[in-house]
Design a protein that fits this description.
The protein is mainly alpha-helical. It contains 26 helices and seven strands. Helices cover 60% and strands 4% of the residues. The strands form two sheets. Strands 6-5-4-3-7 form a five-stranded antiparallel β-sheet. A two-stranded parallel sheet has the order 1-2.
């Protein structure tokens, strides 16, 4: 089943305004949705990683001037970071929507100017040359890495646009186009040359290095929609036949001579929107393993016949053929059709097989039996359903739906010889929908009662139809998919609210860090009394944090707060004396700022007097009383639980560090199976994480917030096996169940067990 991509209202309006045929509009909408899903996280991480780099450099600056310059450069990113990803995605969506319009090559935007000749010398800023050379090198590296995918996508988009194939300099998803978009946005926001250079390097690490996967997914999406589905690109090598044979056998192969698999792609879709696994590929792998193990199975027989031969070998004792009379498949289907119309259903496939044989013998005599292919199909279905049921939680509703599906599935498997080897069979899709509704990784809050009702209606409607036709299952699937698309949209809306709240906490935490950094700098320079430093780091830090959060670090309000901080440190650092007068204007400003962050008037006045008097002395209040009041006062943002999410101070091991680096490269929306503490895995969606605060947000399948943790803690869980990344090849329950069934069948047949893919 195709992944479900939702479009924003702006993208929908953009496509509606374009003069495009409905089919092209649908394809481009799917591509734009794919870009939103695949590139949103890398684009956000681009700016976050850049801010982290500038903060790190500022913390390790050699002198205050260099630190101020770096913090000033980071200040340029405040407005830019808030809309960078949205503007990039809008530019990309606009380029795709105008795919059929003639466009000029974008390579000039990222190509360095030619070297000037002797007769036309001009002065070129050094930073401009460095920027052009950097962008050109970025484009060159990524174009070489993704040459195959770019060629295929250029051909397919040429079909969509009704034009010749797109070259790399005109392809909207090519590195040239993306780098040109980044450069345009950076120049529009007037970022300094140093910030631009750092931005481009961060963009290469976070986006361009993942572009190959995005291009592969775009090619797969178009191929799935019928745009050149069998297209391959193999460059011609003019070599002798023996050389070509050696190259064909060796390139991309490991010791087994089989192609090395690519790293699995994390699953990011909602519900059952993970791409369907290729059952034909699974059968080819099993065929190759059987041949490599020296078995005669699979050498000359097709995949469907191989399954039947493996079943014969797996049976411990052959069925006596002399005492039985195999009935034709039509007679067996007639019995199944009658069982399908009955209200009750068998609790297991073994009961169903026994009921079919008993009915056949009551009608055709005691020697009646199933034909070999019919018996094999029922046995294969029994193996599959057993694996599915092992991954179900004790919920009576999905269990009853699975039981009622047994007869329709049996009829479909017997009527279609390719049921177990063909990709995306409608009957298997319906089985997957029902199975995942009762999957063991779901908690009570994850289950959608409306989906269960829709599944029950679809299964009930299927029981009244001829289950041998794929159209009956396809109609039932369409009703379920409509509901899932609506449910996915609701989940996205709920998730978006939690993500926005998490980003707000991140901004609060970053503002608090900057406020503390400014206070530490003043305390190190002026060295006010210890109690004054305590007041600065508790009460006054809240005032600085609120100002930074509301107005930003480029605002006059923030600059005023910094000047007030310096005045506080300078005044209180003076020795206390009998005639030391309080700075009344400063005291009024401090008191007003503290009132804004929730301090009572009496507390604010007491703190203000101490922060505006030499030595920090105040005869009207005692230090003990004021300290007790400050401890009882809730700090700004204390409810966010930032302290509880602090990273573990224990250094990470090499394996934990590898997990940490993997997490830092994951797209938002990746799914994890996480141990709930009782040995049960629960599926959770990593909706958002921050490279600056290391904060991680998890939601469930309905977009409801489940937990918050840190990248460090999650990396340690992954290393300990308590958190497992869900990949697309392992995302669908029915595909994993069939892979396990093949492994069990091959083991029973005497073959080597298949190694897992991940």
């Amino acid at each position: 089943m195709s992944a479900v991509f939702s479009l924003s209202s702006a993208d929908t309006a953009r496509l509606a305004a374009a003069d495009l045929p409905p089919r092209v509009r649908e394809l481009l909408g799917a591509l734009i949705g794919l870009c939103h899903q695949a590139l949103t996280a890398p684009l956000i991480l681009t700016v976050e990683a850049l801010e982290q780099t500038l903060l790190h450099d500022a913390d390790h600056a050699r002198n205050p001037q260099q630190q101020a310059d770096l913090l000033g450069q980071r200040g340029q990113l405040h407005a830019f970071a808030g809309h960078f990803s949205d503007r990039m995605l809008d530019a990309l969506a606009d380029a795709l929507a105008r795919l059929r319009e003639p466009i000029a090559p974008v390579v000039a935007a990222v190509t360095p100017p030619p070297l000037p000749g002797m007769l036309g010398l001009t002065l070129v800023a050094e930073h401009e040359v460095d920027r052009d050379l950097l962008l050109t090198e970025m484009v060159r590296r990524e174009t070489l890495r993704s040459a195959n995918a770019l060629n295929l996508l250029g051909q397919r988009l040429g079909v969509v646009a009704g034009t010749p194939a797109f070259e790399a300099d005109t392809l909207p998803l090519a590195p040239q186009a993306l780098c040109a978009m980044v450069r345009k946005l950076a120049e529009q926001d007037a970022l300094s040359a140093d910030v631009q250079m750092a931005l481009y390097r961060s963009f290469e690490r976070q986006v361009l290095e993942r572009l190959g996967d995005v291009l592969d997914r775009a090619n797969a999406l178009l191929a799935q929609h019928g745009i050149l589905p069998g297209l391959v690109y193999t460059p011609y090598l003019a070599r002798s036949s023996s050389t070509r044979r050696i190259i064909t056998q060796s390139v991309g192969s490991g010791r087994s001579g089989r192609p090395s698999p690519r790293a699995p792609t994390p699953m990011t879709g909602w519900g059952s929107s993970a791409p369907a696994g290729s059952w034909s590929t699974l059968m080819q792998d099993a065929l190759a393993d059987a041949t490599a193990s020296g078995s005669s199975v699979g050498r000359t027989v097709p995949a469907s016949s191989m399954l039947h031969e493996m079943l014969q070998r797996a049976r411990q004792a052959p069925q006596p053929a002399a005492e039985t009379a195999a009935l034709p498949s039509a007679a067996v289907d007639a019995v199944l059709a009658r069982l399908q119309g009955q209200a009750s259903a068998a609790s297991a496939m073994t009961d169903l097989q026994a009921a079919v044989v008993a009915q056949l013998r009551s009608e055709h005599g005691a020697q009646a039996s199933l034909g070999s292919h019919d018996r094999d199909n029922l046995d294969l279905l029994r193996l599959l359903l057993q694996q599915v049921q092992q991954q179900q939680r004790p919920d009576p509703v999905p269990a009853a739906l699975l039981a009622r599906l047994q007869v329709p599935l049996a009829r479909a498997a017997m009527a279609d010889p390719g049921f177990f080897v063909r990709d995306e069979h409608p009957a298997r899709e319906l089985l997957n929908h029902v199975a995942e509704a009762g999957a063991s990784w779901l908690g009570d809050d994850d289950v959608d009662p409306q989906l269960l009702q829709r599944l029950a209606q679809s299964v009930q409607g299927l029981l009244g139809q001829d289950a041998r036709t794929p159209e009956a299952f396809a109609a039932a699937n369409e009703e379920i998919q409509q509901h899932q698309r609506a449910a996915a949209h609701r989940a996205e809306l709920a998730e978006r609210r939690h993500v926005e709240a998490a980003r707000g906490k991140e901004r609060l935490e970053l503002a608090r860090r900057q406020a503390n950094a400014q206070i530490d700098q003043c305390c190190d320079t002026q060295e006010p009394p210890r109690f004054v430093q305590t007041l600065l780091r508790q009460a006054w830090a809240d005032a600085l944090t609120l100002t930074r959060l509301r107005h930003g670090e480029d605002s006059p309000q923030w600059q005023q707060r910094l000047q007030q901080t310096e005045r506080i440190a300078a005044i209180t650092a003076e020795a206390a004396s009998g005639d030391g007068a309080t700075d009344a204007p400063l005291a009024a400003e401090v008191e007003s700022a503290l009132l804004q962050v929730g301090y009572h008037a009496e507390e604010a006045a007491a703190v203000a007097r101490r922060l505006s008097t030499p030595g920090g002395e105040d005869e009207s209040t005692s230090r003990t009383e004021l300290s007790a009041r400050l401890k009882a006062h809730a700090r700004l943002g204390e409810h966010a639980g930032a302290q509880a999410l602090a990273n573990d101070a224990t250094p990470r091991s090499e394996a934990e560090e590898a997990c940490y680096q993997q997490l830092c490269a994951l797209p938002f929306g990746s799914w994890f199976d996480i141990d709930d503490g009782e040995g049960t895995l629960r599926r959770q969606r990593l909706s958002w994480y921050s490279l600056l605060t290391c904060h991680v947000l998890f939601v469930n399948a309905r977009g409801q917030k489940i937990s918050e943790t840190t990248l460090d803690a999650l990396a340690r869980q992954m290393d300990a096996g308590r958190a497992q990344l869900v990949t697309e090849d392992k995302g669908r329950l029915v595909d994993r169940a069939w892979q396990a069934s093949l492994g069990a069948l091959r083991t029973l047949a005497g073959h080597r067990p298949q190694e897992p893919n991940a």
